[in-house]
Amino acid sequence: MKPQLVIHDPDDWLARQLADLAADSRWLVRRPRSARATLEFLSATRPTLLFARVDPHEESGDSCRTIAEANRLNPDAAIVAVSDVKLPDADRIAWTAVLFDLGARYVLFPPLTKPVLEDLASGLMEACLKRVGGSDEDDDVIDLADEDDA
């Protein structure tokens, strides 16, 4: 079963940063447009990594609710909260604590670079695959090298 990368990001910046890695790794990439769709993808029984864009200034709190609900629905999914908002150190520390409490495994603030995002995603997915004993290879691939010679 292929692992999936779910990217909850209104402007697809994260998806663009992770596109090459996801294609090279043959991960399913899900780019839901709503919190509800994000949570539906998280209910799948496959290795899952969620990158969720958060805005600490968002009054509705939708991104925080999505992270909390995603953690409740799929506690095995690795959740990365990403914000592009520059905050003072004290605010960044407070928001990091809140997002950890909601279920994020990592919280990223600027500066955000493609190599950092890719390294984090590949490491988390590798750990997820080891934990569930899954493989990121297609289920229909037959490896003849593993067959015994008679």
Please provide a brief summary of the model:
It is built from 5 helices and 5 strands, in the order E-H-E-H-E-H-E-H-E-H. It has helices at 13-25, 35-42, 62-73, 89-102, 114-132; strands at 4-8, 28-30, 48-53, 78-82, 106-108.
Distance between the termini: 30 Å
User: What share of residues are in beta strands?
Assistant: 5-15%
User: Would you identify the CATH H-level superfamily?
Assistant: Response regulator
Portion of residues within helices: 40-55%
In total, how many domains does the architecture comprise? 1
* The top level CATH class name: Alpha Beta
How many DSSP E strands? Answer: 5
**What structural class should be given to the helix and strand makeup?**
alpha/beta
**Order of helices and strands, N to C?**
EHEHEHEHEH
Order of strands, widest sheet: 2-1-3-4-5
Rg from alpha-carbon coordinates: 17 Å
The overall average pLDDT, rounded, is 87
Note poorly predicted spans.
Answer: 136-150
